[in-house]
Automatic annotation (TrEMBL):
It comes from Actinomadura barringtoniae. GO terms for molecular function: DNA binding. Keywords: DNA-binding. Residues 58-77 bind DNA. InterPro entries: Homeodomain-like_sf, HTH-type_Tx_Regulator, HTH_TetR. Residues 35-95 form the HTH tetR-type domain. This is TetR/AcrR family transcriptional regulator. The keyword Heme does not apply.
Amino acid sequence: MEAAIVVLPGSRSALEPGRVIKRGRHGLAPETVAEIQRERLIDAFVQVVAEQGYQQATISRITQAAGVTKKAFYDHFEDRETCFLAAYEQGTAIIVARVEEARKAADSWPAGVLASMRTLLELLAAEPRFARVSVVEINSAAPRVRAVRTRYLEGFRSLLTEPEDGLAGVPGTVADAVIGGVYSAIYIKADSGRTEELPELVESLTYFVLLPLLGKEDAARELERLRAP
């Protein structure tokens, strides 16, 4: 059975054939039209921000990339920050769900860490626009947008503070430091335009996560065991 294709915000052009609604009679319900416009605006937002930066991503540029009017933008979003929140939450929720799915399918806690890391980095590498917006450009967004990022990052704390397999967890501050370190490594790649290199970090970042719970020797031994197949 083939895996479902993951579509993150910004992965498709808002103007690609099949997404543009023709003027006049088209037979679509108003709710359908509104949903299509909203998704096109989200894709356009991510594309414009990734290419020009959040500070340069004016509503005019976003609506032009989406192929809709400014009125349509304000029908869906109060301002750019609201659009940023929608794009970030939509994409991040997809990534978190896939990461959690990979973790639960693993047969041990260390294997779950490796599977989660591989899934996360491969998804971001495949979607460089969303990766840049969600990791780099979000730092230019308003506090309420960054607060959502913090909430999602904190969601990974239990992986370290309450691990499975009878392992003793680490304090919350240590978990935050590990999560911050992983985020920083991803940030460096995304900020330098080398998002495609993220999968190369799978083993090193997995070791970094295993280290505080297993210790240097056991973390290296476990990583070698997981690498064997």
